[in-house]
Amino acid sequence: MALNIKNTFLKSLPLALLVLTTACQKVIDIDLKDTPKKMVIEAVVTDIAGQAKVLITQTKNYNESNTPDYLPGGKVSISDNEGNTVVFSETATGRFEAPALVGQASKTYTLKVEINNQTYTSSVKMPEKVVLDDAYITEEFLFGENRKMTTVDYQDPPGVGNFYRCVQFINGKKDNTIYINSDDYTDGRYMKDKLFYIADEDKGQEVIKSGDEIKVEFMSLEKSVYKYWFSLDMGATGENQAATPANPVSNITNGALGYFSVHPYQSKTFIVP
């Protein structure tokens, strides 16, 4: 792969110099080497039946497609701190489910994944549920115009470190913006968090408008899971382009990427007025 760079100058330079410099061409060879592939594990347990799922994929090199590379044949189980173990079934290649597994607040759950002669583990305690009181539309003045934004209301419990994540769907399509928050500076307050959604028309995203259907998922996270989403939002994008992009901080052992999240789940769906 080669990158051609041409030098150009102002027209006010002498003609001879202009000819010399504009005719100069430098070829830079960029040696993009393949890197060893890493395991990627995404595991979720909630307090709702049917939501316990684990996905196993692996990273790809720059010249490969963006289609996830699901890995078959893994063995997946989750145990709680009372000695109960649930073995997951592989329902499709690299996709594992345990529909009857329902997480309980204050219990610690340990994930175990065995694949390709390697073992990966993670332990997470499910936080207490913080009740989602409401989700609705407010208007914010952005980029010279009023724009509709979703707001979520909830009471943060005082004296306890709490971490939150929201996922928004607009007319059934997932908004890929990462919405996370902590109570580091708002402990015990009644919260009205705004989901600042910036539509990208180049990606087929439209502004929220009257008549749209909005679904908001609301989750209380354990700290290590919050750290994963925070680092994905900041570090993996170079923290607002100010640093070199990096992998998000995983809470899974043995060098695996991804996360294990055990959280209470709530959702609210409404039509934009």
Structure description:
- This protein has 273 residues and is mainly β.
- The protein folds into two domains: 87 residues, Immunoglobulin-like (Sandwich); 122 residues, Sandwich (Immunoglobulin-like), CATH 2.60.40.
- Helix content is 9%, strand content 47%.
- The protein is built from three helices and 19 strands.
- The strands form five sheets. Strands 3, 4, 5, 8, 9 and 18 form a six-stranded mixed sheet that branches.
- Strand 3 and strand 4 form a beta hairpin.
- Pick out the low-confidence regions: 1-22, 237-242
The helix/strand order is EHEEEEEEEEEEEEEEEEHHEE
Computed Rg: 24 Å
Our measurement of the CA-to-CA distance between the termini, rounded to an integer number of angstroms, reads 52 Å
Number of helices: 3
Organism: Polluticaenibacter yanchengensis
Pfam families: DUF4249
InterPro entries: DUF4249 (IPR025345)
Protein name: DUF4249 domain-containing protein
